Amino acid sequence: MGSTAEKFLEDSEVKAFEPNHRRIINYNMGKYHTAVARGTARLANLETAKRKAHVVKWRVMENLDKFLPEFEANFQRRGGKVIWANDVVEAQQEILNIIEKAGARKVVKSKTMATEEIHLNEFLELNNIESLETDLGEYIVQLLGQKPYHIVTPAMHLSKEDIAKLFNEKFGTPIDATPDQLAAKARELLREKYLQADVGITGANFLIADNGGVALSENEGNTRLNTTFPKIHIAVVGIEKIIPSMADLDLFWPLLATHGTGQNLTVYNTILTGPRQPNETDGPEEMYVILLDNGRTDLLAQKDQRQGLYCIRCGACLNACPIYQNVGGHTYNTTYSGPIGSVITPHMRGMDEFKHLSYASSLCGRCTEVCPVKIDIHKMLLLNRRDAVKSGVVSTPEKWGWAAWKTAMQSRKLTDFLGGGMKNFLLKSLFKKSWGKYRKMPVVAEKSFAQQWAEKNGPAEKD
Predict the structure, then answer these.
(1) C or N: which end of the chain has fewer Cβ atoms within 10 Å?
(2) Which backbone phi and psi does 114 adopt, to 5 degrees?
(3) pLDDT tens, residue by residue, 79-115
């Protein structure tokens, strides 16, 4: 077992038995589940909508080589620039080139998992460029020096008391400040940053092929400020975020909102089709879209698992997952945590280092049930396990252990020869640490069923 897997197990054990973490997450998850149940109940035919969304995303992935150039051509027609980035290094360097060419020193960012994926804040800091998160949750975890806990609600693991304490230490606000007072303080601090920033960086919820649009959804209004005041706007977007047409937003926006936060529709929904035009009063002078691959085409090549690219990043599967609720988002040590992260991360960052995430599942199927685009998530996890074994990415003890088990199970004589005492000894010796630390190990009967049958009824007749 590699160091990443060992760290996952160690961190999981700590977090699962941390009462304060459990209290905060149970409270926040409870509010989420109530809101989502209310939100999805308003959709006329949820299952039909989910099936339709699945088909649209299937069509996109099967024709990605046509939709991406269509988006590029339409976006460039209005003065936008598209840059293709194969990996993290290319994406970082292209963004740095744009910033340095403009002589910029200050960047404001809205919430975007794609920039977390390429470690953009850390990269810009190394190059003496100030990068400030403007989404309130992202701003809070940036102040703490942490990574986002959740792909939709970055500070889900913090209570209002935790945040009040942080603001008291950083900005001198009252230790008993209310959430409204804390939000007002953050707004006061961030507003001037928009005016000072040279570059605004966002992600995108969807890229629209037929008009070259970049669709952005948010609840705070910070993304609109990021894309309005700075002279340069850079959108960093995974290549899987494409949808065929504007008409598809009628389907995807409500699905994203209801499954992400329980809203009918996110508060602010914006479609940008390029830099400011001569007849327009606001917007950036230059707009770039960085189309990020970073392992996505590797996942696309996996016919059985390419469904993972259908994901619209609503976070529903994280909130439904009993493993995620117990071990928390930071434990995964990946940009994308929870069930969908466990599906896509081994393909994007290497099966050898991250195959263990595909085993961090009870396979209850709840993630598949709640997915708004009907990704068969728990099946994808099983397929990842299959691929790990087929490719030989297993430890030597695991390989020899299962080989011995298979040999024994295929032979009745050998199975009976290893009596209950020997089997119980092997269970305690080999699996007590991994399977039995917090539970009683099963006790195998002294005699097998076949032996008991023979004693009661005599040896079975052979054909």
Answers:
(1) C
(2) -65, -35
(3) 999 999 999 999 999 999 999 999 999 999 999 999 9
